[in-house]
Design goal:
Elements lengths: L3 H10 L1 H16 L6 H12 L24 H34 L3
Length: 109
């Protein structure tokens, strides 16, 4: 990272990805599916990039199972609350940590 601003923007840019990953994980578990974090993040990346095609994981010889995920208004409200909580409670700490990590480089005498 060249600048503190870039580090902050990168951290802020990860928030939607993390919130969507959490929502998908909850929705999948409610249907009896358990995916690894890396698989959840692959699904999130697939969605965030606007890809509308299906997504297949694993061994092609296994039975293909279609999974449908419905996102309701309540889900969006929960995500909005989580983002608000993150901005109020977590992001200031992340900012402090990034400032401390970059302090030596940016504030040389």
């Amino acid at each position: 990272m060249d600048t503190l601003q870039e580090a902050l923007l990168k951290a802020a840019g990860q928030v939607p990805h993390l919130m969507l990953a959490q929502l998908l994980d909850e929705k999948l578990k409610a249907q009896g599916f358990k995916f690894s974090k890396s698989r959840i993040h692959k699904i999130v990346q697939h969605i965030i990039t606007g890809n509308t095609e299906g997504l297949t994981f694993g061994d092609k010889r296994r039975r293909v199972q279609e999974i449908k995920i419905d996102v309701k208004d309540e889900d969006l409200e929960r995500m909005t609350k989580r983002v608000d909580d993150f901005i109020r409670n977590v992001f200031p700490r992340v900012t402090e940590d990034l400032v401390e990590a970059h302090q030596a480089r940016f504030f040389k005498h």
